[in-house]
Specification:
transmembrane, 51% helix, eight-stranded antiparallel sheet, EC 3.4.22.-, 515 residues, Exosortase A, 17 helices, single chain, protease, alpha+beta
Amino acid sequence: MQTRPAYLKWTESLPEGWRKPLLLLAVAWLALFALFYRDWAEMAGQWWDSSTYNHILLIPLILIWLVRLRWEELRKLTPSGWWPGLILLAAAVIVWLLGAVSGLNLLMQIGAVGSLMASVTIFLGPRVSAGLLFPLCYMALLVPFGDEMVPFLQLITAKLTIALTHLSGVPAQIEGVFIDTPGGLFEVAEACSGVKFLIAMVALGLLVAHVCFQSWKRRIGFMVVATVLPILANGVRAWGTIYIAQSQGIEFAAGFDHIFYGWIFFGIIMAALLGVAWHFFDRPGNDPFIDAAAISQSPFITRLDQFSMSGWVAFVCAICVVGAGQAWCHHAMQLEAALPAKINLPEVSGWKRVDYTPQVWWEPRARGADHRLLGSYENAAGERVDISYALYSSQEDGREAGGFGEGALVPDTAWRWLEPVQPLDGGHAEWLQANGNVKRLAVTWFRTGNVLTGNNMRLKLANITDRLLGRNNATMALIISAEDRPDHPAPAAIEAFYNAAKPLGSWMDGIAHTP
């Protein structure tokens, strides 16, 4: 009698019909991890290094636990190869491809995680996938996202904080995300936006809503509270820091904030939420999370199950789908626009070039740009603007015109984001502040092909379209900026220069010598 190797003995506890599909799924996952290794390494780095995403380190363990909760019912089902899962895999690969050709890591990571989710449907079929529906959806939380909400959360926190500050009798004035009080000037910085607690609370809330509730009304109500509560609590945290600083000083308040108002404060908030919600839990302790009999008898799933295919054929097709996506990506990434050897800021009617002498040094970041220009113009009325221009032959990770940390607000400098402004002809406008008293208005435009926009996502869509269609258009980033002076307001100076240089798209093309 032939015995199994020791490393395969664990498979003896599996039902016979599960062994081959799980083997194929395991091999497919290993292949997908290898093919998308860079994306998984990038995500793992964010999970480990960024406090905003540290909670994601627990999600793989939670996923294993969720599957174990279902295993007794799942083993009653029979996995099967299912060719429509290849469509889901192709969709995930396309999302990854769009991210790769545009340099948008978030899309690449969504595609990498989505490919794992899709492969479950390919090798285990619709019945097992239905039983694993929540764990599969919960896998989406492996993607580190949420930093995009930081500016919005900063403004919300600032408004909540100033309201509570006034209610507590402390005189204060607010300008954007800066709050001026008798105890000092406070900034609702990115780290104070509360995004890390919001994301962690949503992840916890989804898990609790699924595990502890049966009623959808209660689930939705709990999720609303779990989403709103950390935002409100973060406003209270910021107010508490300001209130303590009025009597104890900024240094004491900052230290207290780091010690108590970190995870301790939000741990109390989480415990309070769960303590109150406990009385509304309506799922019995012995209630199974899935019903294998109901899944087997479902007419809809039965119809889906008709589209079956051999597991090995599905494996070969899956590899072909992913391989095709990566080959297309490799071809698209070879495209680069032809650029001149040298570029210069042009003459502008009514304006002359002057030395660049800002009160506080300001130099927008444009990593990976093939050409960069930074200079100043002044008109006869004494209005002055600063121009930053960056030219890229292509867009990819590490050389993105609208990437994180790129553009007008450079991290780890004296400049802080203050507030958004009404756009000027589609440009993205924002106030910046340095040293508490120097204000600068910056308006950003991106240009590629015939597209002129201040919207980063619109730029990404244009870059994606160019790459997929084989067009090698250059990408440009222009920032028209001005320091706000009592005799020469920044908005008026920028608008005057814009009117002299327009049409702006043609002006930007002229610098790059593109038709």
